[in-house]
Amino acid sequence: MRGQEWGGHNELSGVVHGPSVQAAVVHGDVHIRTGETAEQQLPWQLPPAVRLTDRTAEVERLEHHRALAAQRDHPALATVSGLGGVGKTALALAWLHRLRPDFPGGQLYADLCAQAPTGPVEPAHVLGSFLRGLGVPPQQVPDGVADRAALYRSLTADRRIVVLLDDAATAAQVRPLLPGGPNVTLVTSRRRMSGLALEGGYQVHLEPLAPEAAVELLAATLADDRVATQPDDARALVGLCAGLPLAVRVAGARLAARPQRRITTMVRALTAERGRLDALAIDGDHGVRAALDLSYQGLPGEAARLYRLLGVHPGTEFGGGVAGAVLGAVGGGVPTGSGADEGPDPGGGGTGGDSATDGARADPDGARADPDRARADPGELLDVLHDANLLIDIGEDRYRFHDLVRLHAMGKAAEDESAAERAAVFRRVADHYLATATRAELAIDPRHPLRERSYGPGPVITEDFGDGTRAALDWQERELPNLMAVIRRARTTGEPDISWQLADALGPFFLRRKHYDAWHASYAEGLAAARELGDGPAECRMLTSGGQGELGRGDTTRALEMFEEAARLFAAAGDELGYARTSNYRGLAHQRAGQLDEAAELFEWAAVELPHCGDLRAGGLARLNAADVEFTRGRLPLAAEGAIEARTTLLAADDSYNAARAATLLGRICLGDGRPDEAERWLSGALAVLREVAAHYETARALDALGEVAELRGQRELAQGHYREALDLYVGVNRPEPADGVRERLRRLDEGGAADSGARG
């Protein structure tokens, strides 16, 4: 077992924090005013609007309700209900996009996933996403639903925003998500949300399209003269689609791809398919399902296989990398393109060699699918599915299913693929995320101790997310919902090794982006998985890494319990190095709790023991932590001696970041000892390094101390500049105590300046 240490032990101790405000390196007089970010950041989260046919009356009703609410300075809450595929979301988007000029404060969007196999989204998760969208740094997002909802209402009370809550399950799920102020909220659901009446909810129930409107939509989808020349067949076709826009678009897309085919051919096929589904008594959405079945049957073999196997994917969005992973073993080769490249193949190759036409279905008029498409790359196959209206393009090589289409794909996977093959596909998808997340982990923190990953039979397809730390962080940010879905699903599908390894790969990301909910949930799953496997070293990693998350959340008691449990396991296994590292972690927990004697004892022991165990850098960090405790106690000579020793060790280990932290401590010691010139040299050198790595908390500490240096010299304006920038950063990383101290110093300087002006007057 290699080490348990990420970057620097103090990153979550109240002494060290990684970057949390997403900004480039800050130089000179550029300030990141987190207190203003929530006011200035404008979220525009609504998906693009799609063509809307014959919904004029419903739009007018919604607009009338909004206008009445605006006259009374009340919020406008409306619900749109109806069958799956009837066009609820299309109506919502068409109306809300029109409101943008009157609501310049932004647009918030959440898919509440009422129909998802894993169950509806929890309000706490949605609130966390909304708060981040409104500019709240992740570490400032409260823990509980009530606190999150209160902050959300406060931030939206004076804004002019619209909110779309799509596919809601219940009124209880919606209530915490209602914004403050006279804003507009629209809820879509298959159910009539009568439970929102007390909140002023106005109900609009959406019926299927009238025949004339459905024919109009079909004509727009075909974009030729077949509807005009075959009007009776067109009316028969939209009738078989039950007037549901999704079914009409799917059937129309199929016909559009076959310009020589008569509409009557589709009518015959859909009549037979509807009869089969009606016999099975499928409720409500049989028109959509019949159209989906026909579209599926007409897909080329590889596209049909990709469609049904994408139903195995546990998340809600995907791109070319996932498509490549899904198809990784088909034909014994690895598909390329769409941003996917071939990763390591630890298992030595694919799991099977299906023929080029495997999975193809007969067209209703007897034609076979084009065998030339079977060798297409994942990007081309995704285009085929998109052209068939089976995927929604959400931009940047990203797609998602309509909820009914996703359920249909899952059903086809269950019908046409064995349980073993579905399990193999999930493993390839999970390996894709694990391998790419591991690449991102190393890009974010090359010093993060990496245990060798275990993969399935392969091949393992990784995604090219670009170069550099920011690109790696942004990929993990974008994919976090999918990564969490894989972590949760893996344990229930007999792949617990994925759960703990993927949580482990997210460690450096969590340290920097501070998604504490996901941090807590992922390591809880990872810890359970490690215990299920009986993997002691993995259990220790989950305890120490998860404990750092608990420390960051402010649960010092739970963090200490986890660190102490890891220490017991290391001791029982005879792992001296692991045990010594936990002493540093336990010291951080005691330091955060204000128990300085206990912290000092643990740091001193670790500073001696870790070098004996072969980890000089960890020993240097323990020495730095011990010096910080001595500084807090006012023992400046001891603190200086420890900080110098720590800095020397850390520089020798090529750890410039933590060496800069040691220099900051030396500057503060010199300042406390009445040596401002020497303090400035230490602090200025540290500041240059800390700015470069965007370490906001440590940058704030150096600026805070430089403000004191300037104040001692009588440089009031320079001191104010340092203090203001430090205050912005302290607020951004949610450190209220040092922020309050800086506010007091600024108040004192402001009062002194006013007094000087009065005396001169």
Key attributes of the depicted protein:
761 residues; mainly alpha; 5-stranded parallel β-sheet; 3-stranded antiparallel β-sheet; 10 strands; 60% helix
Judged by helices, strands and strand pairing, the structural class is: mainly alpha
Number of strands: 10
Q: How many individual helices?
A: 32
Note poorly predicted spans: 1-39, 278-284, 329-374
Reported for the largest beta sheet, the result is: 5 strands, parallel
End-to-end distance, in Å?
Answer: 71 Å
Mean pLDDT: 83
Please state the CA-atom Rg, rounded to the nearest Å: 30 Å
What is the 3D form? Answer: globular
Helicity level, as a percent range?
55-70%
Beta strand %: 5-15%
Instruction: Provide the spatial order of strands within the biggest beta sheet.
Output: 2-3-4-1-5
